[in-house]
Amino acid sequence: METQNMKAVLCTKYGEPEVLKMSEVTKPFPKHNEVCIKIHATAVTMSDIFIRSSDLPLRYKIPMRLVLGIRKPRRAILGLVLAGVVESTGKNCSDFKVGDKVYGITGFGMGCYAEYKCMKENDSTYGCLALMPKNVSFEEAGSLAYGGLLALQYIEHGNIKKGDHVAIYGASSNSGTLAIQLANNFGAHVTAICSSKNHKLVKELGADVVMDYQVQDEIPAGVQFDFVLDAVGNIKTSKLKEACKKALVSDGKYTSIDDGDLKLVAHRLDKIREFTEAGVLKAILDRTYPLDEIVEAHRYVQNGHKKGGVAISVL
After folding, report:
1. How far apart are CA 241 and CA 35, in angstroms?
2. Are 67 and 84 a contacting pair, CB within 8 Å?
3. Could you tell me the residue range of the domain that residue 175 belongs to?
């Protein structure tokens, strides 16, 4: 079969955003159990930032490089998130057909900073894939895939019941904005913790109480939580985060999005689609960049002040 080329962003060494270079590479062709997806949108996540920069505490950096590459990423095309259209399928595929609009995460497979990506139909460490919500754009679907999977996995871990008091630290992040909406849907009383500039946003998403980690160090006297979700990860800390842990009820749960691996399972993507189409969830996009401005997008996300997700339009 005649080979074709595609545009892709390559990362041939660890470093600042400028290590990302637009290039042309060979377009992939699906194996028997794979589908080939024409990517319409991807996203810049904090995971992408950490992979590209390798700027992590030593206890995280060493394991990450053992998995992803010692001196440079083994997979030069980064990007964990995609939303697009199935262009072709392998002969053993039955779950998806040509023309299906899909969204997903590629896990260790990465490869989403490109025009095309081949993925297995079935869940694996190299990703999960599902039909995307019908009522969102490709850019919004990409944001839902990453932030939604994180939020749903850990909100489910909290076993939230109606009337529970839930605190979400980092509430204006991609996973945080979606966690607010999920917790609200399950009937929880939600305290959202983020900078004051994002208080209006998180209130609109369903937060009952808002707190600013930049100016507040303590939880009000008498306030306790059944569940605390750290939606920014263990690397970032504050006195208020520590106060949240101390404010748990005796059998309360605290969890961080860094606690364990993100489970790449399509059934949660299906749930996210159902919630989105029912109006329970909506994606919050801070900015959208074209693929050839990937360096600027990485620089913006790396600065740490985004709200919701940052999308990349590939078309």
Report:
1. 43
2. no
3. 150-256
What is the C-alpha to C-alpha distance for residues 21 and 8, in angstroms, rounded to an integer? 8
Residue 166 in contact with residue 183, Cβ under 8 Å? yes
Residues contacting 47, CB < 8 A, separation 6+: 80, 146
Residues 187 and 218 reside in one and the same domain: yes
Residue 249: inside a domain: yes
Q: Mark whether 101 and 40 lie in a shared domain.
A: yes
pTM: 0.93
Task: For residue 103, list its beta bridge partners.
Answer: 83, 130
Q: What is the mean pLDDT of each run of 10 residues along the chain (315 residues)?
A: 90 95 97 96 94 77 74 92 97 95 94 97 93 98 96 94 97 97 97 96 97 94 96 88 95 91 94 98 97 98 92 94
Using an 8 Å Cβ cutoff, are 281 and 152 in contact? no
